[in-house]
Structure to design on (664 residues):
C-alpha cells in the first residue's frame, strides 16, 4: 500500500535539480568548477557516494571519510544539498576476494568474476552484514551534516543469484508461502512431467535445465527475488532511520518499466509515507515501445511512478541528458526535447528532475554516457538546455507539494506482468508492459492523464479504469465494486486467465467471466502482421478469442473465424464494463468507441496538458507543445515561466512550454 506524503524532501527549497555527482573521478581542482557550474545551472541537490565504496572502506576494517567529508562540506558551503548514497551497489575487489561466496552465480551455475558493479549475491550473509555496517557508519557520521537532504540506498536493485545460499533462502521463503511440500507440489503443479518433490533438498532455483521449466517455479523465483532485495533495502533503510530519523530515505527504482525485477507494490509501503519517497530512473528505450513517440514514453514512466506513490509527489532520480552509453547508436535528443521531457515529468508529479550524471566521465564503462555537463563542456547543446531548464524550474518552485489531477487509471499488476512472461505462453506477443504502453500511449494521444495503479486499490475516484492486460486475477470483487459504483471499466483480452499460481481458471476467463458477462471458448492468436476484421470496420491484431456473450451486448463481431463477439458491453449497477476479445489495431478509435473523453476536449494533437493542484485549491496547468503547429491552451492566469499573463485561448508556439497558475 502507498501512504500519502506531499512533502517528500522537506529540507530542499523548491524543486530538486541535479544528478549523480562522482567527484571521486576528478582532481580536487575540478570540484570547484563543478560547484560553480552547478550554481550557474540552478542545481540544488546532487546524489553523491553512489559507487564510492572503495574510497570510504578501502579494506577490511579500514574506514576513510576524508574525501566524502570534503565533498559534503563543499556542497554545504555552496548551498547544494546531498542525496547521500550508501554505495552498496558496487562492492570493491578486496571485498569480493575476501568473501568469494558473495559473488553471484548465474542460472548456468557459473560464478561470475568481480570487475563490474552489482557483483553480489543478495543471500550471502557477509554481504548482508557489510551493507548494514556501511549504512550505519554513514548515517552516524552524516545524520547532522548541513548538506544532507535525503538518503539513497543502493542503486537500482535487480541482482539475482542462483548459488546454494540462494537455494537455501528460496526453500525457507517457499516454506513460508506454501507451508509443507504438499502445498508447494500443488502450487507448482509438479505432477506435470513427474516433478513431484519428496524432500525440500530437491527444490532448486530455476537453474538451466533441459526443457521448459515449471512456470510456477519461475514465478515464485521472481517473487522471492523481489522480496530478498526488499529485505536488503530494508536492512539498510532501518539502520539509517535509527540514526538519522528526520531525513527521507529512498532508492532509485525502475518502476518505469526499464527493469521489471521487482514487485513494486510489495515495495510500496517502504518507499512511501513519512520520510520515504518514490524515486525512479527512466531511460527511453525505443525498441521496447513499438512506435510510441518519446513524450508518450516519458508520460508512461512518470504515470507509473506517480501511481506507485499513490498519487503523492515522487522524484525523477535519473534520466539522460542526451544519449545513453548502453544504447549504441541511439540517440541524440532533438533540440528542446530535454526541456520538454523534463517539464513533463514535473507536470506529472515529479518534485524535480535529476540526471545520470552531472559531469561526463573520462573513463570507465559509461565514459560515453551523456551528462548535464558533457565532454564538450559549456559550449554544448546539452549544457545550454540544462542551464535553461534549471532557470525554468526555479520559476515554478511553488508547484512543490501539489498533486496531479487524473480522471483515468490503467491497472498495472507486477505479478501479472511476470506471469504473462513465463515460458509456454500461447503468444509471445501478449505481454503486459508492451500492452500497457500501447494503451497508455493511446490515452496520451487522446489527451487523457492516467495513473498507473494497483488493481487492488480503491478505484472509485476514477471516471475510467482500463485493464489492458490483467493476466493474473483471483477475484473480480474490487473491479465489480468500481463498476457497480458508477465507473466505466474497459478490459483487454487475455485477462483474468490464471490464478496466483499461474493455474488456468476453469471456464475462461475465469476470474472475469461473471463481471464481463462473456465466455471464451478458445484462444486464436494471430501471426505477426496478421489482422482480423470486425463488422464495425475496425481491425484486431496479435490476438483474438472465440468469445460468446452470457450476459452482455455484442457491440461488434469478427467478420470471419472466430465469428463470434469481438467487442462486448455490459451495464452493471450504476456503471458499465467493456470487453474486447482482440487487441484493437487502432486503440485511439477504440477508446473513442467505448466513450473515453479527452481531459480538455478540442485541444490540439501533441499538446500535452496536465494539471497539478494544491490542497488549498491553487492549480497549475502545464502545457507542452510537442507538435509543429501553434496550439491554443485553455487556461487563464499567469505563465510562471515568462511571468506574463495568460489570456483564455492563449497560443503556445511549437516546441514551447508554459506553466499557468490558474485564476480560479
Ligand atoms: C542506471 C544507473 C546509473 C547509470 C545509468 C546509465 O540508471 O543507475 O548508474 O549506469 O543507468 O544509463
Amino acid at each position: 500500500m502507498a501512504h500519502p506524503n506531499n512533502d517528500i524532501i522537506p529540507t530542499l527549497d523548491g524543486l530538486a535539480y541535479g544528478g549523480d555527482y562522482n567527484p571521486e573521478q576528478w582532481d580536487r581542482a575540478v570540484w570547484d568548477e563543478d560547484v560553480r557550474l552547478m550554481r550557474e545551472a540552478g542545481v540544488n541537490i546532487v546524489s553523491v557516494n553512489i559507487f564510492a565504496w572503495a574510497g570510504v572502506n578501502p579494506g577490511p576494517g579500514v574506514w576513510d571519510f576524508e574525501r566524502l567529508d570534503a565533498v559534503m562540506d563543499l556542497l554545504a558551503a555552496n548551498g547544494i544539498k546531498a542525496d547521500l548514497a550508501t554505495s552498496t551497489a558496487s562492492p570493491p575487489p578486496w571485498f569480493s576476494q575476501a568473501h568469494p561466496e558473495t559473488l553471484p552465480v548465474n542460472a548456468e551455475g557459473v560464478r561470475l568474476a568481480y570487475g563490474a558493479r552489482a557483483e553480489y549475491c543478495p543471500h550471502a550473509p557477509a554481504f548482508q552484514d557489510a551493507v548494514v555496517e556501511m549504512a550505519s557508519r554513514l548515517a552516524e557520521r552524516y545524520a547532522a551534516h548541513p548538506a544532507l537532504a535525503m538518503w539513497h540506498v543502493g542503486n537500482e536493485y535487480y541482482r539475482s543469484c542462483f548459488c546454494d545460499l540462494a537455494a537455501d533462502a528460496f526453500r525457507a521463503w517457499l516454506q513460508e508461502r506454501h507451508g509443507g511440500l504438499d502445498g508447494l507440489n500443488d502450487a507448482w503443479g509438479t505432477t506435470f512431467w513427474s516433478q513431484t518433490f519428496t524432500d525440500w533438498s530437491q527444490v532448486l532455483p530455476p537453474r538451466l535445465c533441459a526443457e521448459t521449466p515449471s512456470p510456477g517455479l519461475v514465478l515464485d523465483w521472481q517473487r522471492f527475488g523481489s522480496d530478498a532485495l526488499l529485505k536488503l533495502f530494508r536492512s539498510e533503510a532501518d539502520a539509517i532511520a535509527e540514526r538519522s530519523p528526520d531525513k527521507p530515505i529512498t532508492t532509485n527504482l525502475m518502476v518505469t518499466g526499464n527493469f521489471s525485477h521487482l514487485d513494486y507494490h510489495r515495495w510500496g509501503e517502504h518507499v512511501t509515507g513519512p520520510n520515504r519517497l518514490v524515486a525512479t530512473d527512466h531511460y527511453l528505450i525505443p525498441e521496447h515501445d513499438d512506435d510510441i513517440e518519446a513524450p508518450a514514453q516519458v508520460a508512461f514512466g512518470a504515470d507509473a511512478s506517480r501511481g506507485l506513490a499513490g498519487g503523492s509527489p515522487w522524484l525523477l532520480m535519473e534520466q539522460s541528458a542526451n544519449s545513453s552509453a548502453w544504447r549504441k547508436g541511439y540517440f541524440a535528443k532533438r533540440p528542446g526535447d530535454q526541456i520538454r521531457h523534463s517539464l513533463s515529468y514535473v507536470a506529472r508529479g515529479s518534485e524535480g528532475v535529476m540526471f545520470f550524471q552531472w559531469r561526463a566521465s573520462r573513463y570507465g564503462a559509461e565514459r560515453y554516457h551523456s551528462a548535464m555537463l558533457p565532454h564538450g563542456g559549456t559550449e554544448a547543446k546539452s549544457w545550454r538546455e540544462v542551464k535553461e531548464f534549471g532557470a525554468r524550474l526555479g520559476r515554478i518552485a511553488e508547484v512543490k507539494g501539489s498533486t496531479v489531477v487524473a480522471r483515468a487509471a490503467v491497472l498495472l499488476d507486477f505479478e501479472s506482468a511476470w506471469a504473462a512472461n513465463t515460458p509456454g505462453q500461447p503468444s509471445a506477443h501478449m505481454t503486459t508492459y508492451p500492452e500497457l504502453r500501447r494503451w497508455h500511449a493511446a490515452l496520451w494521444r487522446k489527451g487523457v492523464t492516467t495513473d498507473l495503479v494497483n488493481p487492488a486499490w480503491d478505484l472509485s475516484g476514477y471516471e475510467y479504469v482500463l485493464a489492458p492486460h490483467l493476466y493474473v486475477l483471483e477475484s473480480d470483487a474490487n473491479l465489480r465494486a468500481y463498476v457497480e459504483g458508477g465507473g466505466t471499466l474497459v478490459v483487454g483480452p487475455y485477462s483474468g486467465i490464471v490464478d496466483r499460481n499461474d493455474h488456468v481458471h476453469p471456464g475462461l476467463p475465469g476470474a472475469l467471466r461473471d463481471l464481463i458477462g462473456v465466455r471464451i471458448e478458445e484462444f486464436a492468436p494471430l501471426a505477426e502482421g496478421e489482422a482480423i476484421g470486425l463488422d464495425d470496420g475496425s481491425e484486431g491484431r496479435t490476438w483474438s478469442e472465440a468469445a460468446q456473450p452470457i450476459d452482455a451486448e455484442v457491440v461488434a463481431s469478427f467478420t470471419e473465424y472466430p465469428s463470434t463477439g469481438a467487442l462486448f458491453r455490459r451495464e452493471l449497477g450504476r456503471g458499465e464494463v467493456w470487453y474486447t476479445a482482440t487487441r484493437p489495431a487502432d486503440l485511439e478509435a477504440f477508446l473513442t468507441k467505448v466513450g473515453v473523453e479527452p481531459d480538455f476536449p478540442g485541444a490540439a494533437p501533441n499538446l500535452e496538458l496536465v494539471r497539478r493542484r494544491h490542497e488549498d485549491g491553487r492549480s497549475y496547468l502545464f502545457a507542452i507543445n510537442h507538435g509543429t503547429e501553434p496550439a491554443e491552451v485553455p487556461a487563464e492566469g499567469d505563465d510562471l515561466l515568462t511571468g506574463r499573463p495568460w489570456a483564455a485561448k492563449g497560443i503556445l508556439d511549437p516546441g514551447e512550454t508554459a506553466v499557468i497558475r490558474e485564476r480560479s
Summary: Residues 13 and 397 are 8 Å apart (CA to CA). Residues 215-243 form the longest helix (29 residues). The mean pLDDT is 96. Residues 15-25+247-398 form a domain with the TIM Barrel fold (CATH 3.20.20.80).
